[in-house]
Sequence to fold (213 residues):
Amino acid sequence: MKPTRVRILDAADQLMRTVGLARTTTKEIARVAGCSEAALYKHFDSKEELFTFVLRERLPRLAPLLAELESGGASGAGDGHDVEETLIEIAQNAVAFYASTFPIAASLFSDPALLRRHGEEMDRLDMGPHKPLDALAAYLRGQRAAGRLHAGADPEAAAALFLGACFQRAFLHAFAGDRPPSGPAAQPIDEFAAALARTLLEGVREPEGPVRP
Fold:
């Protein structure tokens, strides 16, 4: 049998995706996990904290990837890693991450009290929806400092445009439900990610040769 903590996270992930965060209770999570509610509280302080750990440990790899970039890891600024390939990887993970969070987080906005508690928990754990934007902007600032982006590039605006496009694609797919998405959202994810990275870089990359008047 899986460890209790793993079973609790599995149950929370399942319930939050199927009935929504607002309607998911710790009692029901414990029942599905096959443990007592008291055992759940040995591992997590609240439903809101449990939700943040589901985001951390059960969703596609966006936060770790961006944290690695922000801290100057293997794909960080100044190591010669291809910026376009990095942005493609970020786009693919961002779309998958946002698509996975919609079914879980949508119910937050129907309950102001729950949204406030969740926001407070995010602040306590130094998490939040602004973190990917901050991390991507930091990565782009590093690339600008390394001379791979032109000096006038705005990393914050570029990060917002990039992740905003990823969020929009994920939203359109979630809104379509079982129906096939139409328009640009129907584009295969690999093509979307490549086109998005290329388009962003056309606006911010340092020209390789003399700029024509």
